Structure formats: C-alpha cells, structure tokens
Amino acid sequence: MQKVIDSSIEEKILSLIPQQKPFRFIDEIFEVNEDFISGCYTFREDEFFYAGHFPGFPVTPGVILTECMAQIGLVAMAIFILNQAGEGGENCKTLFTSSEVNFRRIVEPGDKVIVSSTKKYFRMKKLCCDVKMETPSGELICSGTLSGMFVKE
C-alpha cells in the first residue's frame, strides 16, 4: 500500500497513541483524513501471546486482531480528528464501547496485516467505524463495526 500521509502527521499520531509495547499493534499509518484511515502491523514471532496460544501451532488470538483494528481504526483516527478540531489528542484514553467482528482466516506469526477504517459517525467524543483487516494481497482476514469513547485523563 502506498503511503500518502505526511510523516510529521504520522509521527504526531503515533506519539499520542496511549498503547505501548508490548501492547501496541501499529507499525505505520499510510493514510488518514476525517473519514478514513489505513495502516499496518506485522505480528512478530516473539509476541508475548504466541507462547500459550495453541503451542506448536501458534495463531494470533481474535481479541488481539480486534485490538489491532481498534488501535489503527479508532484510536489513531480519533487522535487525528481531535487534533484537526484543535482539541489535541494528549492524555486521551479510549473506552472501548462495542465491537462486532467476523473472522475469515487466521493470522500466523510473521504475517503482516493492513487495517482500513471508514468513519460512520463521530459525535460527543464517540467514534463508530466500519473496519477491515486484510493481507497485503487483499485477502479479507476479518471485518466489523467498532466503537469507542474518548475521554481526557
């Protein structure tokens, strides 16, 4: 996927993401505007959750895939929207309010995923988006609707 975001905007958003390693699942943001965001993450073989999630046949847990979708598709987009509105994204916490995700295939250690999200609405600090996760070749991994509330500390 071609990157169309200004590097200073990407750096600003990534610096404000509250999730940190080992629980940050964003490598890059490719594009962002008021209505859409896309980015990627590569699930490394040494991720903490693989040791106990099907030993001998590690797969990425669905809750982790959902978290990756939420970090790129909700948190990063909300930070961008709040900054555009002059409200900043500093000290912004995400309260995950709902998710409905359908899974189509597994993600194994070493797999790269592309997440894209389209805003349905953002009002009263609640963001609702249609989010999908695909392989780099465009094969659908999972998709659904995610919502979150954004509050200052």
CATH topology: Thiol Ester Dehydrase, Chain A
Tell me the number of strands. Answer: 6
Instruction: Give the count of helical stretches.
Output: 2
Shape: globular
- Total count of domains: 1
Mean pLDDT: 92
Q: Helix- and strand-based class?
A: alpha+beta
Strand order of the largest sheet: 1-2-4-5-6-3
Q: In CATH's first tier, which class applies? A: Alpha Beta
Give the name of the CATH architecture: Roll
Global Rg: 15 Å
Major β-sheet annotation = 6 strands, antiparallel
Q: Helical proportion?
A: 10-25%
The separation of the N and C termini measures: 35 Å
Notable characteristics:
153 residues; 6-stranded antiparallel β-sheet; alpha+beta; Thiol Ester Dehydrase, Chain A
3D architecture notes:
By secondary structure, the chain is an alpha+beta fold. The protein has one domain (7-152): Hotdog Thioesterase (Thiol Ester Dehydrase, Chain A, Roll), CATH 3.10.129.10. The protein contains two helices and six strands, in the order H-E-E-H-E-E-E-E. The protein has helices spanning 7-16, 62-84; strands at 28-32, 36-42, 92-103, 112-123, 126-134, 140-152. Strands 1-2-4-5-6-3 form a six-stranded antiparallel β-sheet, with helices on one face. Strand 5 (126-134) and strand 6 (140-152) form a beta hairpin. The longest helix has 23 residues, at 62-84. It is globular, with a radius of gyration of 15 Å. The chain starts with 6 loop residues before the first helix and ends with a strand.
